Amino acid sequence: MTIPRSGSRRTMGQPRPRSMFMAPAAPASAAPAAVLPPHAVRTRSRRASDLRDAVATVTPHEVTALQPDLDGVVGTLALPHSRLVYVRYGGSVVVEAPPTQRRVVATIPLGPMHVTIGASARGRIHDSAFILAREDRTLMRPDPWAGALVLATDEDRLAQHQAVVVGDADAPQSSAHPVASSVALTQACRHAWQMASTLSPQASSDVVNRFLHVVEDQLLTAMVLSQGPQTVESRPRGSLRVPYLRDWLEAHHDVDVSICDMARALGVSVRQLQYAVHAQTGLTPTELLRETRLRHARELLLAADHGSTKVAQVALACGFAHLGRFSAIYANRFGESPSATLKGSS
User: Fold this and answer.
1) H or E element: which one contains 206?
2) Tens digits of per-residue pLDDT, 241-296?
3) Which of 131-145, 160-174, 223-237, 253-267 has the highest mean pLDDT?
4) Which domains does the chain have, with CATH numbers?
5) What are the φ and ψ backbone dihedral angles of 155, each rounded to 5 degrees?
6) How many other β-carbons are positioned within 10 Å of the β-carbon of residue 80?
């Protein structure tokens, strides 16, 4: 799915008259159904109640339609411990979310969204990620055609992930205001949705599950870092363990591996891992993983039988899920395409 660009930010004063809540006309060319990831649960309906129920698997809320018929689409991507949802109502609605309590819910507008917290008569326009209020209601008026992404997880799960990312086991507090790094969280959610949309419908359940594991790690990391500055040790205790990380990557480079997996393997936080790897190699952990995969891919291609081996087989065997991206990265690294290397091995 191509994520539409959000609109510009503006500040709202007193609530607009009801006449201004009326649905804007649909685009001149009828808005097509959103392109949803092949492994997402899909709902399309003209009834607000159907769309509400589809999104309620992520967070409870009420939807009030301000016009007789909608043209709504919902796609739900079930991650191991979280949910990522796209929702487009296809008409003007008011969405009221109750206090989230121990659920952490981030909304990522894909178009300008008016948001009001609690009983306040004032609100503001959001065009990047914000966290639903933990102890108060959140009232939203999303863009009818651009829609929004919603990322939700349990507070305990996020606290566990925070311990991995920054080495702080204290649970982050949900906020009624935009998160500190809303742009980064917005980009992470949009990128995750786009990547999920590229998965082949024929991908095995094992490939899909491993992919979703990495996606969730990336999204929760972005959510943790969006909560504001965190205190970390200036000298990570894992600084002497980078050789062990290299050995671990040698054994695990052929599966989907996230930076959180690497940190867990070393018993340090993600920030400590990043510091240690960069200090000793000049690379990020992700770049170190990619270099390991590329080296193994080249070794396999050089040793392969051109007549019985395909580039796609080698890419998958080395942990590259997207053949096109693998070919581009490989060519940039070695100055020739994977197929050229394979042909030269014959």
Assistant:
1) helix 205-226
2) 788 888 889 888 888 888 888 888 887 888 888 888 888 888 988 899 999 999 99
3) 131-145
4) 36-230 (2.60.120.10), 293-344 (1.10.10.60)
5) -60, -40
6) 11
